[in-house]
Protein: dTDP-4-dehydrorhamnose reductase
Organism: Sphaerotilus mobilis
Amino acid sequence: MSADRKILLLGKNGQLGWELQRALAPLGTLIALDRHSSEACGDLADLDGLAATVAALRPEAIVNAGAYTAVDKAESDVDTARRINAEAPAALAHAARACGAWLIHYSTDYVFDGSGRDFRDEDAPTGPLNVYGQTKLDGEHAIRASGARHLILRTSWVHAARGGNFARTMLKLAAERERLTVVDDQFGAPTGADLLADLSAHMLREALQRPADADTLSGVFHAVAAGQTSWHAYANHVIDWARRHGQTLAVREIAPVPASTFPTPARRPHNSRLSTGRLQRVFGLTPPPWQAGVDRMLAEVLTPR
Ligand SMILES: NC(=O)C1=CN([C@@H]2O[C@H](COP(=O)(O)OP(=O)(O)OC[C@H]3O[C@@H](n4cnc5c(N)ncnc54)[C@H](OP(=O)(O)O)[C@@H]3O)[C@@H](O)[C@H]2O)C=CC1
Ligand SMILES: Cc1cn([C@H]2C[C@H](O)[C@@H](COP(=O)(O)OP(=O)(O)O[C@H]3O[C@@H](C)C(=O)[C@@H](O)[C@H]3O)O2)c(=O)[nH]c1=O
Ligand SMILES: [Mg+2]
């Protein structure tokens, strides 16, 4: 790929942003920003600043890994969540449209209401249960309405060795407490930030190489690891792996509980199963089982160096 092709990455230091710094690097010249960057505005709260950054750089692709991801906090911090998750993507989409750039953006299983037991397709009806999910859905809608070429990857239960996530919370709690309670009636697929970054790079490369097919490639894609689990079974998997690999943990019991007895400010969907058929059909990409990514992440977190 041409080295003078500019790719703008926002949110470079989150779980996903960090992996995208690696995965996007071979596709061109990467300009990676976070909210504190001094070379250009990368603050997602500064909509005019974002527009100015895109207008000055005129990248061929904008990849937005930044988001307001504190699901419970969003319930009482609605304005900030909306600014970062809905208004910033809207501003990026308009700027992308103006310079003909692709916009790569990420969304979530939390745009759905979680009813039923089936794996959902991209065109299944949405119905977010919480502020985070609603603001992420509003971001999707703004991008689609902008007319910009876009790839929106809806993912779920993201983990990485670097960053905050459920698996790392379980490892910490298991070291401190004898008993954990973990919900066993919410189902989904833990998805590695490394996998998501690699899927993104493959998709963007294809999109950049096939400008005539922009309309058929553009759209929403479910991008999650294969298979399914509950948070409770995921916690068991993480703790079993850690024990088998020599960790000494305080935990003796991981009690399964219904979400109704684990009160949180935000409601969460029971069924977060997403079907990746469209990713396979359009881009020929087949995500591996979730366990492979989790085990790799655990090896990175727990293996002494
Ligand atoms: N984490 C998950 O389980 C899931 C995530 N997603 C989506 O995937 C994407 C990546 O998530 P993930 O990497 O896990 O999230 P993280 O929370 O790890 O990273 C989010 C990043 O966004 C940055 N950010 C927040 N506010 C601003 C701002 N005003 N300006 C610039 N940067 C900002 C944060 O920076 P700082 O550290 O400075 O706050 C952080 O680096 C997001 O779109 C998210 O909605 C979808 C499903 C599941
Ligand atoms: C810490 C803890 C959580 N839980 C429950 C709460 C919740 O239902 C579930 C997961 O907790 P978390 O706080 O990791 O959940 P949450 O932050 O809602 O995770 C979500 O983040 C956003 C950004 C997404 O887009 C989603 O895909 C999803 O990954 O586990 C327990 O049952 N026991 C515990 O000890
Ligand atoms: Mg969380």
Notes: The longest strand covers residues 102-108. Residues 149 and 215 are 7 Å apart (CA to CA). The two ends are 35 Å apart (CA to CA). The longest helix spans residues 78-99.
